[in-house]
Amino acid sequence: MKLHPLRFLVSAFMAFGFVAAAHSQNSLPVNAAASVNGTIISNDTVEQAIQVALSQGQKDSPELRKVVLGKMIEISLLSQQADKDGLANSDRANSQLALIRQNYLADLELTTFMSNNPVSDADVQAEYNREIASLGSQGMIVEYKVSDIAVATEADAQAALARIKKGESFDKVAKSVSLASNKVQGGAVGWVQAGQTLPQIASVLVTLSKGQVSPTPIQMPQGWYLVKLEDKKSSKPPSFDQAKAAIRNGLIQKKQFEFLSQLRQGASIVVR
Q1: Is the N or the C terminus of the chain less surrounded, counting Cβ atoms within 10 Å?
Q2: Do 145 and 223 belong together in one domain?
Q3: Neighbouring-strand partners of residue 188
């Protein structure tokens, strides 16, 4: 069985509170899966780590559970040794732990926000009805096959655009400079509808011809983007049951975008 290396579990452990208080090595609490030099690994933490593995395509089995617990024991041993070696208070450790904490809290805040502001079934149905009505008399959906490049600054975006205008392929530039995870696919996003993208992207996308790149960088809360329209097609709209999952995801992204925009408006942000 192939599993991710140790790092496959590290973020989950940071999130779930991997280690508990030291305990007698001669006995284990009821909810303990193991003890490593007196440090408890709880059954709950093992189960949460199992869920991480399942979400990454693993199949639940006694072998998987044994491997996951073994990895947790190894990480506990390594972290204890790091403490003994004085690494826990190093600048490198402190900066990385601060980053892990920040990322976890950011995810927790978004999760909490969506729990308090859920997308309801009625919201999804209303959006589906709105999208169907917007198709007009022909009742056809226009889909766009899109690639994008995401960079941190307008200057970086202009530099990437200049390379494309000089003849470099979009996918080559994307692989070279994009900060998005799809850079390894040359920036390929796939087929989307204009309504499934954020307004800044949609307003540009509908103006592009096949093969055209956005003439200027597009500013987004998380950076600057270039988009390329790879292809375009029309099709009959899906049924509500076929579309509801995509519509729900789009509404969730919209809510999160509006929340982040609100936070930005109320913040003092200085960028060098």
Answers
A1: C
A2: yes
A3: 147
Instruction: Say yes or no to pLDDT of 55 above 90.
Output: no
For residue 109, tell me if it sits in a domain: no
More confident residue, 21 or 128: 128
pLDDT at 26: 56
CA distance 3 to 153: 37
Residue 128 domain flag: no
Name the residue with tokens 């006694």: 62
Residue 142 banded pLDDT, cuts 50, 70, 90: confident
Last residue of a domain, one of 85, 103, 127: 85
pLDDT at site 212: 96
User: CA 178, CA 189: separation in Å to the nearest integer?
Assistant: 13
Residue 165: domain span:
141-235
